[in-house]
Design goal:
Helix 9 packs parallel to helix 11 (202-212) and helix 10 (172-183) runs antiparallel to helix 14. It is built from 14 helices and 9 strands. The strands form 2 sheets. The protein has a 7-stranded mixed β-sheet with strand order 3-2-1-4-5-9-6, sandwiched between helices. Strands 7-8 form a two-stranded antiparallel ribbon. The longest helix has 20 residues, at 254-273. By secondary structure, it is α/β, with parallel strands linked by helices. Residues 1-18 have low confidence and may be disordered. The protein has a single domain, classed as Vaccinia Virus protein VP39 (Rossmann fold), CATH 3.40.50.150. The radius of gyration is 21 Å and the shape is globular. Helix content is 44%, strand content 19%. Bound molecules: S-adenosylmethionine.
Length: 296
């Protein structure tokens, strides 16, 4: 075939390198949420939506408030904010998420495709920035915090929700982690990524947020619960509602995958047999405001 000799040996090596280049965490995240977008409202939203009222309440009156929402997903939070009089701009890395959000909130909100660590806005545009369970998915959370500080007006408020490090028993993510640690091969070449609960640890979070330009940081526990849809609830979450855990799951052999699925069903059944309709899934709210640098 003429095409390969025309590229030349070094061109061919470059082409092969590009094809072989390992994907970054950010690429996996983008592709993962594209895959999850259509099922997000059925699998993840029934839990994440429970954080919306506390997030919005942290901002006070929303009437005429210009809010930026990072990782806006399918637009549920934006819909509530618009109902309360806010003007909201959502930004998300997944085109499918952006499309669904636009359909959910056709008036009063604008949704843009973009990366939280490279915001397409002038400085000091927004009174408030919110982010509901987006930070665990950012490849560069420090850069995202710096960008938030840049686009917030002085004294503007930042509120975000995250998942704390899960307890091994009696929490949705803790049980998943326990089953994966029991059966999965953890050395399967996952892309380097920040720990998903890093911002829940005050020793990491507080210096990081302060350095980015925030003050008056405080946290609040969110007593969320993951509704049980049946014995396969946790399995469904892994294969249709997660990105990081699915990366681990999909790299296992079929035999190990079967053991993980059986382990998750067993843990879920323990709740169902006890007549439970949901599993505790604690979240955390982090609230701060932009520090004003006085030049006098
Ligand atoms: C767990 S979902 C949260 C969605 C919604 N905020 C909620 O609480 O239901 C994570 C979202 O983060 C988005 N995301 C991941 N990385 C991102 C990035 N670097 N910049 C902007 N959005 C990102 C995903 O596309 C996805 O919509």
């Amino acid at each position: 075939m003429a095409i390969w000799p025309a590229i030349g040996e070094s061109g061919l090596r470059y082409t092969v390198e590009i094809l072989m280049a390992p994907k970054t965490f950010a690429q996996y995240e983008q592709e993962g949420w594209q895959r999850n977008a259509a099922t997000y409202d059925a699998i993840d939203l029934p839990t994440t939506c429970q954080a919306v009222t506390p997030i919005l309440n942290s901002l006070g009156s929303l009437q005429d408030l210009p809010i930026l929402e990072l990782a806006s997903g399918t637009g549920y939070l934006a819909a509530q904010a618009v109902t309360q009089g806010a003007t909201i701009t959502g930004i998300d890395i997944s085109p499918k998420m952006v499309e669904i959000a636009q359909q959910r909130v056709p008036v009063g909100a604008t949704f843009l495709l973009g990366d939280a660590s490279d915001l397409p806005f002038e400085a000091e545009q927004f009174d408030a920035v919110v982010c509901s369970f987006g930070f665990p998915h950012f490849a560069d959370p420090q850069k995202a915090l710096q960008e938030i500080a840049r686009v917030l007006k002085p004294d503007g408020v930042l509120t975000f929700s995250i998942w704390p490090e899960p307890e091994p028993d009696n929490s949705f993510f803790g049980l998943i982690q326990k089953v994966c640690q029991t059966y999965a091969d953890l050395e399967v070449g996952l892309p380097p990524a920040p720990p998903s609960s890093a911002l829940a640890d005050p020793a990491i979070r507080d210096p990081m947020i302060t350095q980015a330009g925030f003050k008056d940081i405080h946290t609040q526990t969110l007593n969320l619960r993951w509704p049980l849809q049946g014995p396969e609830t946790m399995v469904e979450f892994i294969v249709k509602g997660s990105v990081r855990t699915r990366m681990l799951y999909e790299r296992q052999t079929p035999a190990v995958q079967a053991k993980i699925r059986a382990g998750l069903v067993e843990e879920t059944m323990a709740y169902i047999r006890n007549g439970k309709k949901s599993i505790p899934c604690p979240g955390m709210l982090v609230i701060g405001s932009k520090a004003v640098v006085r030049m006098d």
